[in-house]
Each structure stands twice: as structure tokens, then as C-alpha cells.
Amino acid sequence: MTLAKIVYASMTGNTEEISEIIEEKLQEAGAEVEREECSDVDEDFFEDADICIVATYTYGEGDLPFEFEDFFDELGEQDLDGKIYGVVGSGDKEYGEFYCKSAHDFVEEFEKTGAKKGAETVEIENNAEDEDIELLQKFVDDLMANV
């Protein structure tokens, strides 16, 4: 069975809700899923995963969530060769150029690990609406198709 692991950070609850939607969609697709808040995991969280997912928000002027900093700093040094990854970001378009920047920063770190990008990065403004849930379904479908 495919093991998907989701690590997330959430300030307002939006990103946590997004991670729950992804978890549900992955379970419906037949994957075993572990979903954890970032302050509850170590840098080797993805070690035994087939699919590695980060769900993050962006703080202020493109800043990574404080609680994700240590995990982020260690991610690029992990050997995730043979694994599939995907990133989802939540943000507010009022921040202009910084909208969902943390998600794209995570993509750059994943690229250093040897993991293969299994789905396009999903950007969601604030909380997930119907059209966002459709994007998350495609995200999950693409990840599962790449395992």
C-alpha cells in the first residue's frame, strides 16, 4: 500500500483544513496516510513515505512559518530519491508578490532531495472553496499516478 505523509503548518486553520482534505482524498484513492503538524515531526519524517506532501502558509512578506523553519532547514539535506512530492500553499493575494511564497520555497528544497515532483503546486487563497477542492483532487490524482 502507498504511504503518503503530510506535514503542515497552520495559523488560522485554513492550511490544516486543506491538509485534512488532502488526507481524505488520498484515503479515498487507497493510500495509507499520516498527517502531522510540523512541530510534531522530525526532519526524517518522510524517510519511509512513498508520497511526501507539505502544506504551508506564507507569513508577512514571504516569510516561512516560524514553526516550519527547522524542518525546512533540514529538508534539502534529506535523501528522498525514489519518492514523489507535492506542495500546497495557502495565502492572501493582498500580499502581492509574496502570495504563497513559502510553498515555492519548499519546492526548491524538495528539488535538492532527489524526490520527483508528482503534481503541480496548488495555491489556495485563504480557505478551500469548491474550485480549490477540485484542484486538490487533481493534486492527489497526479501524485497517486506518479507512484
From TrEMBL:
The keyword Transport applies. Its cofactor is FMN. Residues 4-144 form the Flavodoxin-like domain. Signal peptide: none annotated. GO terms for molecular function: electron transfer activity; FMN binding; oxidoreductase activity, acting on NAD(P)H. Pfam families: Flavodoxin_1. InterPro entries: Flav_short, Flavdoxin-like, Flavodoxin, Flavodoxin/NO_synth, Flavoprotein-like_sf. Keywords: Electron transport, Flavoprotein, FMN, Transport. Belongs to the flavodoxin family. Low-potential electron donor to a number of redox enzymes. This is Flavodoxin. It comes from Vagococcus acidifermentans. The lineage of its organism: Bacteria, Bacillati, Bacillota, Bacilli, Lactobacillales.
